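Handout, tutorial session.
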Amino acid sequence: SKLKVQLKLAISRLRMVQQKDTAIAKQQRRQMAHLLEQGKEESARIRVENVIRSDITTELLEILELYCELLLARIGLLEPKECDPGLEEAIKSLIHAAPRTDVKELQQARQLLVEKYGKEFALEAMENSDGKVAERVMNKLKVEPPDPVLVDLYLKEIAKTYGVDWPKRQNKEQRGSDEEEGDDDPSGGHTVKNLEEPLTTEELSKATPPRDLGPKSPLSIAPPSPSTDNLNPRVKLPGPPELKPGGKMSGLKKQTPSTQAQSDPTGLHMDDQGKKGVGGKIPDVDELARRFAALKK
């Protein structure tokens, strides 16, 4: 039960330390970018090693946190006196790496593991005589200067993140090479398009004029989208209403020419719309004058 409580405290403490180290590393990266912007490259190269070491330590704490979570999940396998083979790597890695950290809760959990499994087991873990300690943990604990290639990669990434023009020499060389290539090119760096022959009158007469030629209507109607009920929808514009005859007009029968002559001896008859005319047409002025002269006789 003590080990379980201590593992929970260690996990919580490890997460807090990781967040704190990440915030400090972010401030240090901003300082590196300021140094690069001022041209203090040597100072930036020395200080960036601290950033690299801080990142390695943070990665180590993350690995140890995972091992603590593994032991907490399999706390039932820690009851026997003999170490379970599936947990041997995690336990020995914690015993080996805990003294290299500043997390007291993790060191107290390590002490409980040493008391449980004995001094010989702890000695094997500290010396890694049987090679059970995780290789990635051993790599993170190595104390050696970082590779110069890694330093350059860190500086390039910091300059890219904060928008610093670095390395300036490389950028100047690239600009110089681009200018030299532009001098060799007679076109001045611009591509020259091939001139096409003009079209003849026959080809122009056969060409289809574009649809957007001429004045455009201020109104635009989007066609409706097809659906399962109507695959080919069309836009119907509103037109004048169709006039249908009423009941009285449809009931009247058309008069024959003989009945029209009897009812209208003057030759002027009323058409279906109540207007006088011949053959359904309105007579002109000369025709009317002639007919009125015949009536006076």
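The second record follows below. Compare its token runs with those of the first.
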Amino acid sequence: MPGPTTRILLIAGSDSSGGAGLEADQRVLAVHQCYAMTATTALTAQNTLGVYDIHHTPTDFVKKQIDACAIDIGIDVVKTGTSLRLDDAALAIKNVLAETGSQVMVATSGAQLLPQAAVRALRTELLPLTTILTPNIPEARLLLQDAGQSVPEPRNIGDLVEITEAVRALGPKYVLLKGGHSPLSRDDQVAAADEDRAYVVDVLCGDGQPMYIRSEFLRSRSTHGTGCSLACKSSVFDRWSAH
């Protein structure tokens, strides 16, 4: 396990309810004995029911936060979350090496957190520097649509793999597609009815054959912040595997 000297910079938004964003990320890093630093890109008024308002942090101040961490503490890994302004993604590129991208574009609740104008900059500037990207299905489709690709709703496990590989072709070394938005039935088809939902599959594509991570489908409303936490844990183990 990475030790306390593994220094991870979190470039993301703050969640006022504490369930997602920087607050969730820091809890994950504390469990794994990593040192967390933050560059806050936005303050949000949100809870488990939705996002009510967003206050953008001025780009110059985001840059000052990043620089303050880099020149003193030092940075081993960068984990990005919600960067609501185009320049914030560029700052991550210019100042530090991007390791893990969890760039939050569409929240679990369905709210689009990244403005449409910023999606292209993310796709063209940040993804080629990303070690592992962890999009949910709506985010993956948004990226591919911005690249001019027609992306229908996935119908089966094969479609999930195609989406994952297509996103990986945009630049990341690895893509972990989170399958929670498309639960599957026992025959590996996207469930048509509530009662057919049997399990979900996350698909990891990189070097070699795709890896499938199957989990039993759980009926729960306690999903707020799950994507942030997964991506943050991925950044920890990306650093661990590098050593």
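Points raised in discussion: The chain has seven helices and nine strands.
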